[in-house]
């Protein structure tokens, strides 16, 4: 009966804000990396585009596989603070420090710069997993009610959107204001953002609460068994990878497109600010899922994002047209980036129903951190390959082939990824139909176990 009662308890607004601050902190730092790191490496730190692409791919692929390790660690965690929550206390400082080191710009040889970039990028990614995995793994344990999970997740996504807006919109201005040259500007900006991110994670730690606390940790073998025949989870992981492929490929070339194709580098900040249109999609989710299946809403978001990206290829030099297409795509990405996190909580329920094991850490680590890193790594690498093949060289007038490559990378390339992901989510529909009965069965099972205790 305890779970049935807890499922009806409303989450206080201040706790929703605390949960939202986790994604605000994560996006404040992580978005700076995904949006500007390729440009920073090539045009500030002085690494070739081919070497930078290699760093992004190698580090992200290696780093992606630490996600299941973090999932195992969380599943095996049992503290008075809960299972996921303590990692915001333990990992906030390393997360901030490695972010600063990424943008430190030490005076090294070409080889030295390569290894500095690779190691700091990899360590930052590992620490981000330590912060980001609990954001998703804690959701199934904050509430047992699907509607409240969606509201929590939407609030969290709006917090993440605010973090994104600040860094994506003002980072270039911060760099210009806080440094007499680009290198010191990036270094000082990183210091400021890192301190803010650290404080937000402390707020999240002190004000969130877990209601589903396992009586003991789960072994690695049991965590893996939770994924056995968990087909909705497998489908969602693949779909989310394709979302991040599309998102990373579109954001990593924004500065290139505005600087070289449009001749207005500063307009990148305007486009990044317009990503705030994602909030429209995020806010709409709780209303849309009351009328349509979550699968269909997610598919519509992916297709809308693809349509907006395709429109960019037809806007020419029209800044208004580009802004409209980018904003339309952002509404779609707002839906596409938010809904899978709530759906992952449902796949945790499915794994418990199917296998008798509630491995929220492992399942959400793969579904969120692994998918984000694998998709972002490959999505950031793909444009670098396209640009390198077209002959891109930093800081010079680009030839027609390079300009076409940049345009393709910001329009058609992400659209392809979004469409594939949108089609794959159709496989999830048949599993979604059974969610209500699965949740009722789990509540009955837990009630029986509690009465036996």
From TrEMBL:
SUPFAM superfamilies: MFS general substrate transporter (SSF103473). It is found in: Cell membrane. Keywords: Membrane, Sugar transport, Transmembrane, Transmembrane helix, Transport. One of its GO terms (cellular component) is plasma membrane. NCBIfam families: gph (TIGR00792). It comes from the Bacteria. Pfam families: MFS_2. This is Transporter, major facilitator family protein. GO terms for biological process: carbohydrate transport; sodium ion transport. Residues 16-433 form the Major facilitator superfamily (MFS) profile domain. The keyword Transferase does not apply. One of its GO terms (molecular function) is symporter activity. It is a multi-pass membrane protein. The chain crosses the membrane at residues 16-41, 47-74, 86-104, 116-139, 160-178, 190-208, 229-246, 266-289, 296-314, 320-344, 410-429.
């Amino acid at each position: 009966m305890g779970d049935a009662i807890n499922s009806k308890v409303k989450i206080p607004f201040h706790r929703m804000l605390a949960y939202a601050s986790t994604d605000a902190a994560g996006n404040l730092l992580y978005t700076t990396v995904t949006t500007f790191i390729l440009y920073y490496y090539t045009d500030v730190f002085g690494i070739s585009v081919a070497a930078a692409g290699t760093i992004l791919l190698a580090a992200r692929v290696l780093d992606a596989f630490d996600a299941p390790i973090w999932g195992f660690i969380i599943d095996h965690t049992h503290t008075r603070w809960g299972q996921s929550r303590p990692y915001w206390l333990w990992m906030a400082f390393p997360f901030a420090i490695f972010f600063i080191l990424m943008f430190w710009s030490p005076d090294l040889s070409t080889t030295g710069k390569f290894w500095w970039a690779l190691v700091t990028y990899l360590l930052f990614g590992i620490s981000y997993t330590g912060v980001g995995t609990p954001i998703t793994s804690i959701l199934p344990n904050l509430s047992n009610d699907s509607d409240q999970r969606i509201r929590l997740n939407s609030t969290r996504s709006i917090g993440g959107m605010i973090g994104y807006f600040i860094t994506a919109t003002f980072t270039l201005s911060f760099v210009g204001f806080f440094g007499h040259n680009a290198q010191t500007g990036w270094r000082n900006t990183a210091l400021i953002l890192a301190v803010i991110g650290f404080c937000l994670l402390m707020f999240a730690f002190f004000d969130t609460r877990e209601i589903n606390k396992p009586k003991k940790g789960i072994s690695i073998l049991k965590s893996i068994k939770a994924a056995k025949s968990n087909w909705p989870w497998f489908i969602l992981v693949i779909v989310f990878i394709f979302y991040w492929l599309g998102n990373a490929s579109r954001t990593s070339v924004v500065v290139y497109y505005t600087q070289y194709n449009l001749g207005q580098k500063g307009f990148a900040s305007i486009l990044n600010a317009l990503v705030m249109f994602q909030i429209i999609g995020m806010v709409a989710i709780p209303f849309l899922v009351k009328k349509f299946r979550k699968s269909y809403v997610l598919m519509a978001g992916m297709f809308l994002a693809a349509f907006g990206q395709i429109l960019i290829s037809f806007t020419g030099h029209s800044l208004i047209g580009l802004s409209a297409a980018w904003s339309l795509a952002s509404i779609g990405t707002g839906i596409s980036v938010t809904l899978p996190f709530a759906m992952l909580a449902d796949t945790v329920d499915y794994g418990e129903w199917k296998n008798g094991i509630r491995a929220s850490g492992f399942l959400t680590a793969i579904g969120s951190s692994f998918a984000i890193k694998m998709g972002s790594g490959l999505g950031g690498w793909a444009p670098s390959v396209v640009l390198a093949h077209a002959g891109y060289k930093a800081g010079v007038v680009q030839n027609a082939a390079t300009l076409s490559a940049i345009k393709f990378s910001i329009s058609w390339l992400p659209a392809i990824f979004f469409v594939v992901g949108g089609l794959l989510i159709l496989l999830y529909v048949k599993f979604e139909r059974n969610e209500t009965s699965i949740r009722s069965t789990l509540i009955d099972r837990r009630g029986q176990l509690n009465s036996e205790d």
